[in-house]
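pasting for the record
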Amino acid sequence: MADEIKTLDALKDAVAGAAAAAPVEDDAAPREPVRDSLGRSYATGKRKDAVARVWIKPGSGKVTVNGKDINAYFARPVLQMILRQPFEVANVEGQFDVMATVTGGGLSGQAGAVKHGISKALQLYDPSLRGALKAAGFLTRDARTVERKKYGKRKARRSFQFSKR
């Protein structure tokens, strides 16, 4: 019995020593910038059914979506404002050129997808921007999508019109 207690104590000490010796990896390894051979960072952004492929590189602040200028593709000022939000939060307005291709969904979902992609690409280009972008919630994919239609219903939840007679 005494031998068992001694071995248990020895095991506990060994486990405690190993746990204390293991390095804590919270912020031990700083993030490295991820850039391709042309000095660009790439990220994929998603929102609703829209998927955006986004490349950013240092430049004058020119934004191109599907080969068109931002003013031509996203005509509504609200959608243009959505695309500018990550740059304003990170305080890098006019410092990066953006080239994006986006498919699926409508214009609002596409604007959200490009915004998500820009945010992810910015934090890959310069990891020091991650804190501000994460605090603003721009690195989180908005998981809200359209609810599926159920059988026996006119839409997802809307019933057919009731007739008493």
